[in-house]
Prior knowledge:
Elements: H1 5-11, E1 16-21, H2 26-33, E2 39-43, H3 51-61, E3 67-71, H4 77-85, E4 90-93, H5 99-109, H6 122-128, H7 132-139, E5 141-146, H8 149-153, H9 155-159, E6 166-169, H10 171-177, H11 189-204, E7 208-212, H12 216-225, E8 229-234, H13 235-249
Parallel strand pairs: 1-2, 1-8, 2-3, 3-4, 4-5, 5-6, 6-7, 7-8
Helix pairs in contact: 2-3, 4-5
The protein binds 3-hydroxypyruvic acid and magnesium ion (MG).
Amino acid sequence: MRINNVKKIWQEGKPAVGAWLSIPSGFAAEVMAHTGVDWLCIDMQHGCIDYSDVVPMLTAISTTSVTPFVRVPWNEPSVIMKVLDAGAYGVIVPMVNNRAEAEKAVAACRYPPAGIRSNGPNRALLYGGADYQQNSNYELACVVMIETLEGIKNMEEIVSTPGVDAVYIGPTDLALCLGLPPVMDNDDPKHVAVVNKVLETCKRHNVIAGIHTGSSKFTQRFIDQGFQMVMLVADRSAMSSFVKLEVNRLTGWTPAKP
Ligand code: 3PY
Ligand code: MG
């Protein structure tokens, strides 16, 4: 089976830097796959993306060695299984609150007897290779998100759930549940304290710590701290901020009002 490059990076103790896809386009995914990032995540939770968009996006990413992840809309086994069947090498599961929910996510990613995944890896077999079913329980990454008050309270039991490869922080949902504005790159001491606690808990349990950012400044900070799954930039914001920057460089012309 094709190896999971991100898991290899993790095993070497290095950070894997990724980017985020919310635009439903195979071509946009391919462009993002040629930028030097280790992984891409197709966001079915908040991106404008359905399953029929996910498949050509995975196909486009697989023209490169970038590792494809999908964030599923919810902790729903049928959706987790379908994105894995389409060739995702990892799933990111939002808003995981406790051990039972973490176990549910893990079970959907693994074939029996380790889990409950149903057999039918149609595109995954082409991408992963003929021995996919024998090795996918090991190669595929199950990443659960901590970003709710209940998740914070149950951090220890979520992080230590067998089969959880990484725990990923959603900074804006985390901020909201702490009673703060939904700021991505967040310096509020209450926010920083939880982020540090997730990192410390992951380190203690030998689980990869991950976090979403909105800038290279915060990506660098989290890499330096020891996070090994860090999201650097999203397609929508990259497109929008670069074009705005160029628009605002011009003189003798007034930008149009959207
Ligand atoms: C959050 O900020 O809550 C996220 O889930 C990032 O995508
Ligand atoms: Mg979130």
